[in-house]
Structures are given as structure tokens and as C-alpha cells.
């Protein structure tokens, strides 16, 4: 095994193991302002872009398989909290059906929106969809995202797994009361499967707020009332609607 100064954890009662268990729950992620990542590629990509972890937990089996990658983490991370855990402990706190053998803890940063366009997410409840939307937003240069209180937790393990390193690279804020949307000066564009201006013919403002609605109900009636424009993607009459993540990618590409 590589020469890393690991702190060995020998008990499930260890406070670090207890912390990992708690971070599976939204209320503790919010309380501690921390979340977990169980994917080596995400951890490496984040570090390469300057997003360092606070602590990392590795099994002996994982360390033996990934010596070069762990050497990179040791050399480039400022963290001194490298822990060696038994694979049985990893199963105890992991969110994965088959634990990866590596878990990193990150601080939840406080983000601020810049003056560019904003993607507003209204009740996106499926973690996979939310994570995919984050990756598409990053791919097409939409860095400002606002989530309302009905969205799934952004730091849910399945969201993080789907979003990958986009979770670190976007300006993500929460609009728990709906006040941000009510007070924004940006023109508000909503989407609909059946009504509105054809996306292919739509000319957006230089900066705008695009609202994406929930998978089952679309954009809420309250938001529809305050929208400046409604736009739609022309699709075949043989299908009722697109998956929200698929629609998001098309909208981001066309509006960019």
C-alpha cells in the first residue's frame, strides 16, 4: 500500500463514522454544511479544479487498487484527514449498493449569482433528472441555478452521482420562500409541452430566467401567472412530452 499517513478507524462508534452516517440525511447536511462524494473520478476532477475535500475515507482494498490516484490526492490536497476504514464500515455508511471504497466529505459553499441568465428549477423531484440538468447547464454555459423548496436536495447522493463535478462548478442557490423569483428583474420564461412560442423561432433577451417545471406537473400555476413568455419545443404528436432533463438540454442549447 502507498505511503500515506492514514488515521486508522477501528470502531463503528468512531465520531467520524457517526458523521458519515448523519450526512446521509438532508437535515444533517444542512446543519453541518457538508456532503459526501463516493466517486473517485468526481473527487479527482474536483481537486484538479481547486475544490478540495475536508476529509477522505478509504478502504485498504481500494488503496491497493488505486495507488497512483491516491498519491495524486495526497500530494495536491491540503487536507490532513486521511482515514483508513474497514470495508465493513464502508458498507455501513455508504449510499451505494456496492460501496466504492472511497468517500470524501466536502463543505457546502455559499454561492452568489452573477448578472448572467438564471435557470430556475421548480419542483424537480427526481435526483437523476436534477443531476443531469446540472451537467447540461454546465455544458452550455448556464452557471446560475436557483432551486425552489420543492426540489430534491441538491446534495442528495443520487443527485451528486448524476451531476458529477458540475456540483462544484455552478452557482447554486435556494429560493425557499419564492421571493427571489418574485423580485428578479430578469424576464421570466416558462416552458410548456403544448402552448407558447416555438423555441426554434424564439429570440431571448441577453439575460433571462428560464423556469423548468416538475416532471409530473410542469411549471406551477403561480409561476405561469408572472411569466413574461411561454416557450415550447415542437415534438411529434405521437408523444405527449419530453423528460425534463432532455427538454432542458435542448432549451439550453437553443437559448445559448
Describe this structure in words.
This protein has 256 residues and is α/β, with parallel strands linked by helices. The chain has two domains: 7-107, 2-Layer Sandwich (60s Ribosomal Protein L30, Chain: A); 118-255, Alpha/beta knot. The protein contains twelve helices and twelve strands. The chain has helices at 15-22, 26-32, 40-48, 60-65, 67-76, 87-93, 127-139, 157-163, 166-169, 179-183, 221-226, 244-255; strands spanning 7-8, 34-37, 55-59, 82-85, 102-107, 118-121, 144-148, 171-175, 188-191, 197-198, 209-212, 229-232. The protein has a seven-stranded parallel β-sheet with strand order 8-7-6-11-9-12-10. Helix 7 links the parallel strand 6 and strand 7 (144-148). The longest helix has 13 residues, at 127-139. The relative contact order is 0.14. The model has no long low-confidence stretch (mean pLDDT 93).
What letter string, H or E per element, gives the SSE order?
EHHEHEHHEHEEHEHHEHEEEHEH
- Average pLDDT, to the nearest integer? 93
Name of the CATH homologous superfamily of the largest domain: SPOUT methyltransferase, trefoil knot domain
So how many helices? Answer: 12
Counted beta strands: 12
Determine and state the CATH class of the largest domain.
Alpha Beta
> Biggest sheet: strands, sense, closure?
7 strands, parallel
CATH architecture of the largest domain: 3-Layer(aba) Sandwich
Give the DSSP E fraction (strand runs of 2 or more residues): 15-25%
- Count of distinct structural domains: 2
Low-confidence stretches: none
**Helical/strand content category:** alpha/beta
Largest sheet: spatial strand order: 8-7-6-11-9-12-10
Per the CATH scheme, the topology name of the largest domain is Alpha/beta knot
What is the rounded distance between the termini? 48 Å
Task: Summarize the amount of helix as a percent range.
Answer: 25-40%
Radius of gyration: 21 Å
Rough outline: elongated
